[in-house]
Amino acid sequence: MKKFLTIMLILSFILLALAGCSSSTKTNVDAGNAQVPEKKDAKVRTIRAGIGLTETHPEYKALIKWKQLVEEKTKGAIKVEAYPSGQMGDDRTMTENLQMGTLEVTIPSTAPMVNFVKDFAVYDIPFLFANSKVADAVLDGPVGQQLLDELPAANLVGLAYWENGFRNLTNSKHPVASVDDFKGLKIRTMENKIHLEVFRSLGANPTPMAFTELFTALQQGTVDGQENPLVTIYNSKFYEVQKYVSMTNHVYSPFVFLMSKKFWDASTPEEQKIFVDAAKEARDYERKLIRDGNDQYRQDLIDKGMKFTDITPEVHQQLVEKSSPAVEKFIGDGADKLISTDIYNKVKAAVKEAEAQNK
Ligand code: KDG
User: Fold this and answer.
1) What does the buried/exposed string (b/e) look like for 278-311 if buried means 16 or more CB atoms within 10 Å of the residue's CB?
2) Does 228 sit in the ligand 1 pocket, CB within 6 Å?
3) Best mutation site among 91, 207, 242 for ligand 1, i.e. most ligand atoms within 8 A of its Cβ?
4) How many angstroms does the Cα of residue 164 sit away from the middle of ligand 1?
5) What's the predicted TM-score (pTM) here?
6) Which of 154, 160, 295, 322 has the fewest CB atoms within 10 Å, measured from its CB?
7) Is the CB–ligand 1 distance for residue 109 below 6 Å?
């Protein structure tokens, strides 16, 4: 009897266990009908965007506009984190990180881009664009796009050109009103062979340097001067370490809005269109902020104690003639050249057409 009871007890345990499994199976079966919890959050992808300029600069304000447009139009599927003031490194470092996929967006000047796509050097030709209308027509036109189309080969995607601006010379030594006044000045240039050669041709003593090191170099007297648009001179507080501004307007500098190709390729066509459309809307906003502010930046810099020198048409012509040969040696199709004849000819033709339309 005892044995019978023991067997019955074991059997009942087994039955109970099976019922439990079936109930868990049942649960699983019922799971199809149960309230399956919403995914807490569909995987939100993050874009980290680094620039070298400060939060007060229109470039940062336009990046925030781009952030707002992208987050709104992707309905939160993509979040943008903006990092100004070189927090993510200098232009070349940030661009290299885009190539590796460890950063998603940066918006450098085209000058250091020459280290990644040589043809961007065409934008460093002194006095190439007479005014911003001509600049916009060339940059936003077919040849500007052809240059952007060279970027994917370097694991980069160019979405649009923004405005850095017309570059003017500053220094701590003396006013610069003539070509002779450049003589011997230690001038920081961007890391770009054409900029170096142009300032050598004017008699200066140029030093290539990342933007992130520039303020300290001016403060310590490592260099006497630098060249940048008024908006950058003001927002980077160069008036604290520079005395003289010469309105040379010697180069129009574009920014290029870059995205990591790795992130671009992982995005849908709809997201890619959102990125580009937002970059163009923010571009127009940024260009307007800078252009509407230029007169005020000049007055603000005067109020901060800087002394302005305007360059006469005669001196302007002398600067053009003195600097042009420095560029010629970089034009051609050899390995030692920077600007291909195709790009050079197309840009010059586009400039001519834009000038004719803006007469
Ligand atoms: O990151 C900031 C730079 O892209 C920009 O300021 C470039 O004009 C420039 C310079 O002088 O380096």
Assistant:
1) bbbebbbebbebbeebbeebbebbeeeebeebeb
2) yes
3) 91
4) 8
5) 0.88
6) 295
7) yes
Q: Which secondary-structure segment (H or E) carries 7?
A: helix 2-31
Of all protein residues, the one whose alpha carbon is nearest to atom 2 of ligand 1 is 52
- The answer to whether the beta carbons of residues 51 and 109 sit under 8 Å apart is no
Residues 50, 51, 57, 62, Cα dihedral to 10°: -60
Q: What is the pLDDT along the chain (359 residues), one digit of tens a residue?
A: 556 566 665 555 555 544 444 333 333 333 334 443 444 456 899 999 999 999 999 999 999 999 999 999 999 999 999 999 999 999 999 999 999 999 999 999 999 999 999 999 999 999 999 999 999 999 999 999 999 999 999 999 999 999 999 999 999 999 999 999 999 999 999 999 999 999 999 999 999 999 999 999 999 999 999 999 999 999 999 999 999 999 999 999 999 999 999 999 999 999 999 999 999 999 999 999 999 999 999 999 999 999 999 999 999 999 999 999 999 999 999 999 999 999 999 999 999 999 999 87
Count of residues making up the chain: 359
Return the residue whose CA atom lies nearest to atom 7 of ligand 1. Answer: 109
